[in-house]
Write a structure and sequence with these properties.
The complex is a heterodimer of chains A (235) and B (101). Chain A has 235 residues and is an all-alpha fold. Chain A contains 12 helices and no strands. Chain B is extended. Classes of the chains: A mainly alpha (235), B mainly alpha (101).
């Protein structure tokens, strides 16, 4: 099927945005709470919105807030971002058989708003839409609500009392926990590497190690466990 | 509070890394077809990373915060409802922070 026999890019974008409206609406709640958590962690409204606009990943953004302190630990933030965003690499690999048309630059621009819901939409596409248009439309719906929600949350924090803001500093941990629950539900077969990583991180947190070292050692322990487990089940 | 330049640098760095992750799988995958064999590793990594952030952060929490986390995760496990679980957790944090202090 050539691109000319499909819906136009704009029509496909609209279809993608419409299909993804539910995810976009539910993501607004996360965005509002991210805005509150970000403001509680010391980010300005502009910085919180800029983080949502450039990063656009709930798990990665909530994780970053856990390390947001003076001076900023760049290495830890970088390691955390790479490890948590590695899931996005997996999603982009899954797009290879579906998105093959248009220039590489256009495709990469579209991938800048790649997330699970719009990637799944492309993979399950039945109607003759342009896959990149659906990806961009679905992604834009979530992107706009994510930024708007962050703005509302970060602005709303200004009307809270200092006690309330202080008590919400732990909100980020609650949301990382909920995201972890979603990850477990979507792929529970990896419970052993995740458990090993968690136990290793718990043990190492009693030593005076930098967070990036704790993260790298713990993730390595978990992934080695996963590789050994996969080899054992193959044998 | 961190100074503006440091914060902006960190935000743009994280944004650049996230963009690289979003595009690298596709770019490498169209060049090297056998990248699929690393799929199990990529599937396990984000969960491992989240656990290494969640567990030490949870251990640093007060009893009230740990209680909020326990109720949130329990609600999430049984209902799979983000809205309900969020409301429960945030309500406990706010109630504890404002009325119990």
């Amino acid at each position: 099927m050539t691109i000319s026999s499909k819906s136009s890019f704009l029509t496909s974008m609209k279809a993608g945005a419409k299909s993804n409206f539910g995810f976009a609406a539910s993501g607004t709640l996360f965005a509002i709470l991210f805005g509150i958590a970000a403001a509680s962690a010391g980010l300005s409204v502009f910085q919180a919105v800029l983080m949502s606009a450039t990063f656009f990943s709930a798990a990665g953004q909530f994780a970053a807030l856990e390390f947001w302190q003076t001076p900023l630990p760049y290495a830890t933030l970088a390691v955390s971002t790479v490890l948590i965003s590695s899931r996005l690499s997996l999603l982009s690999i899954a797009m290879i058989p579906h998105i093959t048309e248009r220039s590489l630059f256009t495709r990469m621009a579209g991938f800048s708003i790649l997330l699970d819901p719009n990637a799944v939409m492309v993979m399950n596409l039945k109607e003759p839409h342009d896959p990149l248009g659906v990806l961009v439309g679905g992604g834009l719906a979530m992107y706009v609500t994510w930024i708007a929600g962050t703005f509302i949350g970060a602005t709303f924090t200004n009307i809270l009392t200092p006690d309330m803001v202080a008590s919400l500093q732990y909100a980020g941990v609650l949301f990382i926990g909920m995201i972890m629950m979603m990850v477990i539900r979507s792929s529970s077969k990896n419970w052993m590497p995740w458990t090993i990583s968690g136990l290793m991180a718990a043990a190492l947190s009693f030593f005076n190690l930098p967070p990036s070292a704790i993260m790298i050692i713990s993730v390595m322990a978990g992934t080695i466990t996963g590789i050994v487990k996969a080899k054992a089940s193959n044998d | 509070m961190t100074d503006t330049a440091s914060a902006l640098l960190a935000i743009f760095m994280m944004g650049a890394i996230a963009f690289a992750c979003r595009t690298s799988g596709y770019l490498i995958g169209i060049q090297f077809k056998n990248i699929q064999k690393y799929r199990p590793l990529l599937e396990a990594l984000p969960g491992c990373a989240l656990m290494t952030i969640l567990v030490p952060a949870a251990l640093k929490g007060s009893s009230l915060e740990l209680g909020a986390l326990a109720f949130t995760l329990t609600a999430m496990w049984f209902t799979n409802n983000v809205l309900l679980s969020s409301i429960i957790g945030i309500s406990i944090l706010l109630a504890g922070g404002v009325w119990l202090v």
